[in-house]
């Protein structure tokens, strides 16, 4: 698939500066550089400028708001030779915060810190991901994923003692037993399963009415991508799959997945869903899918724009999968 990295969160060519992470002196020098910048997060939301076109905010490293960060920043990489660090100020609590509005399927709320500009707000990444440039999206996804890992992995999985951040945020080291822990990424297959002129679509409980997407599932230990595709489709929809090919991948930091898009040819047609896994599945013709993607179908909403499911379906319709 020639345009595989055109998917959201992919293809910006970020220099991740992996060679300096273990060198504390080099990281300190990069942090002290006047051209270095901070990428700020609050409860997983990146700080963006909502002026059109929207962009990821890059703050100077001496900005006073950074003093609210509870832990050392994470080195995300370099732009034009200058370092970019992710800071987390999740301990800050807005005066008008309504917790009931946070964390929904597509959180519409924005938070504005008093020390920041009027157009600078924290926004849910799923909502704004298509507004951002490829570089901004990659930085935001990387920062969200790595900070989320630190939040849930403070304690050693071997002995239970609290661990410490090392290697510029890309490792946690247990002081008690010496165990080293590295950021987690969960492999997920997402499947464009076709039979003739139709594609297999499904929906999970709790999704907005009418929203359908491609089937997806986690890869199990000891399993190939091809085997995972066949197993997940049969478990969720009762459909058998023959040939499987890889198409494209997408980092998906909600919270820490790598979505691996695959195409599969169904060898059976009858659908028998697993109601624990999905709420509904059906075959959708190419003509109906074109209606759905243009917003003209009476009952089917397309997969979320920016997600790899939308990307794969769009390119299937345009015959650009090869």
TrEMBL record:
Highest taxon of the lineage: Bacteria
InterPro entries associated with the record: NAD-cap_RNA_hydrolase_NudC (IPR050241), NADH_PPase-like_N (IPR015375), NudC-like_C (IPR049734), Nudix_hydrolase (IPR020476), NUDIX_hydrolase-like_dom_sf (IPR015797), NUDIX_hydrolase_CS (IPR020084), NUDIX_hydrolase_dom (IPR000086), Znr_NADH_PPase (IPR015376)
EC class: hydrolase
Keywords noted in UniProt: Hydrolase, Magnesium, Metal-binding, NAD
Catalytic activity: a 5'-end NAD(+)-phospho-ribonucleoside in mRNA + H2O = a 5'-end phospho-adenosine-phospho-ribonucleoside in mRNA + beta-nicotinamide D-ribonucleotide + 2 H(+)
Record domain Nudix hydrolase: where: 183-314
Cofactor or coenzyme needed: Zn(2+); Mg(2+)
Entry keyword annotation includes Magnesium: yes
CDD domains from the UniProt entry: NUDIX_NADH_pyrophosphatase_Nudt13 (cd03429)
One GO BP: NADP+ catabolic process
Entry GO CC: cytosol
Keyword Protein biosynthesis: no
EC number: 3.6.1.22
Entry GO MF terms: metal ion binding; NADH pyrophosphatase activity
Similarity section: Belongs to the Nudix hydrolase family. NudC subfamily.
Name of the protein: NAD(+) diphosphatase
């Amino acid at each position: 698939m020639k345009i595989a990295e055109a998917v959201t969160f992919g293809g910006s060519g970020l220099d991740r500066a992996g060679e300096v992470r273990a060198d504390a002196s080099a990281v300190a020098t990069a942090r002290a550089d006047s051209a270095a910048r901070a990428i700020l997060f609050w409860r997983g939301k990146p700080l963006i400028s909502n002026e059109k076109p929207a962009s990821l905010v890059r703050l100077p490293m001496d900005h006073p708001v950074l003093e609210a960060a509870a832990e050392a920043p994470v080195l995300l990489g370099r732009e034009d030779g200058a370092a970019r660090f992710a800071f987390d100020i999740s301990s800050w609590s807005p005066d008008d915060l309504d917790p009931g509005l946070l964390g929904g399927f597509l959180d519409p709320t924005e938070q504005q810190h008093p020390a920041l500009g009027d157009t600078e707000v924290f926004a849910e990444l799923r909502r704004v991901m298509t507004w951002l440039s490829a570089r901004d999206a990659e930085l935001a996804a990387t920062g969200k994923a790595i900070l989320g890992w630190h939040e849930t992995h403070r304690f050693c999985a071997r002995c239970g003692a609290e661990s410490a951040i090392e290697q510029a945020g890309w490792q946690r080291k247990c002081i008690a037993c010496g165990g080293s822990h590295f950021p987690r990424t969960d492999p997920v297959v997402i499947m464009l399963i076709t039979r003739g002129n139709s594609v297999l679509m499904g929906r999970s409980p709790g999704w907005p009415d009418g929203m359908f997407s491609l089937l997806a599932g986690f890869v199990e230990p000891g399993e190939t991508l091809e085997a995972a595709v066949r197993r997940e489709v049969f478990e969720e929809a009762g459909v058998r799959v023959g040939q499987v090919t890889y198409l494209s991948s997408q980092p998906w930091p909600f919270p820490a997945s790598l979505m691996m898009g695959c195409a599969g040819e169904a060898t059976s047609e009858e659908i028998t869903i697993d109601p624990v896994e999905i709420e509904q599945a059906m075959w959708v013709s190419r003509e109906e899918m074109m209606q759905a993607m243009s917003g003209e179908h009476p009952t089917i909403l397309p997969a979320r724009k920016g997600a790899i499911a939308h990307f794969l379906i769009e390119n299937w319709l345009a015959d650009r999968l090869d």
